[in-house]
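Q: I have two molecules that I believe assemble together. Could you output structure tokens for the complex as a whole instead of separate predictions?
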Amino acid sequence: MADRPRVAVLQFPGSNCERETAAAAEAAGMEAEVVRWNLPERLAGADAFVLPGGFSFQDRVRAGAVAAKERIMDPVAEAASSGTPVLGICNGAQILLESGLVPGWKSGTVQAALGSNMVHGRSGYLSAWVHVRPDPRAAEACPWLCALEDGPLPLPIAHAEGRFLLDGEDMERAEGCRGLLYCRPDGAEAEGFPHNPNGSSLNMAAMVGSGGTALAMMPHPERAAWMWQLPPALPGEWGGRRRKLSPEELLCSPGPGMLFFRGLSRWLGVGG
Amino acid sequence: MSKTTTLFTAAVELKAVDPEAVTALQALRETMPRRAPAELRRYVLWQVSMPEETGASEAEAMLRRYEDIVNPNKHRLIMLEGGVEGLAGDGLQWVPVRVHNVDDTVSESWLSLLSGAGYPVAGLDVSVLWLLGYPPHTSPESAVDMAGAAAVTRSRREGLLGNPVSQRVTVGDAALRGAL
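A: Yes, here they are, computed for all two components at once.
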């Protein structure tokens, strides 16, 4: 279908979530194409970009640092500056921060970092389900967040460097850029580990940049795109919804992660 | 533990070509070709503060006991006395660049582990040391300037080795001073 919006999912050496990310975009009514990092000309005509999770360039030097320098990021940065939606998931979020697209207060300048997980008594790689909720100030203007429900969403995380960090003087304006906040399963504000799993500043799970259309998020929506991907014992409302589904319904019911792709789809005029 | 301590510095490098250094050098050549070094080397720098009477061989033996620090199959450990002369060869103008994570959980964990194992370690610091080698005709001042630009990530086109928001980057002579 030629009239479907086209989403380019960038694949760097070491990316490992590109297929399921593309599948989620397709399921939301868009055409998705995985584009290798050394074929930047294939990005022409894309309506949105997704930088998926993984370990681009084996996390050499620093997670996301080398991919941010790649030529394929030139057209992404250019399109982002004119409002084309860009989503960075996990390692993709690290690339967006290392490339200066997020927060993007000063064009092209690196102003934030994703530091090593650090909560009292715990550090290192963490793989877990967390709950997040959108910040209403960012959600309305962000294509990735505009379809989210107000309530808490369960999403999985898997990272060692996911703690949003900013310089002290930037903290205040960062409050307006919080795309997603870590919270408790009932939606109440997270108060440290495990609800804020990595010690992220301002409980930030995602940060919005570039005029509201670029989003750097550490949780993986593509790993919660279908209800069968949610763990059976998940707490909260979505866990309850999952347990009520029959085995057949479980296989075909969209999960909380699909809302990110449906939001984009709606934003691009499909309706998802 | 005695109150006066001695600082020991050890650099650990891969015996094989370091892939991080190869990738970083390639990225620097592509993004800032005029300021990229001719050679780039990478080490993990261990600084341990131990009682004054401790000998360098004792500090070295402590570090060698742990294969997570020095795996003899793939790593080489070099105890440093003073500058980087023990690491870099002649022929290039070498500039050290040291990168610390501002919140350093690795150093904290190792200090706890070594103290728990009974070693009299008063302080410990783990960082990454990069050596940037510029052509020999480069002036020392110019080499430091270029290394500084390559070291600190300012934008997609400028800097790579450390993100100034989450890391502390020191360039030149200051890079090898004790961080403890």
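A: One point stands out. Chain A has one domain: 6-226+256-267.
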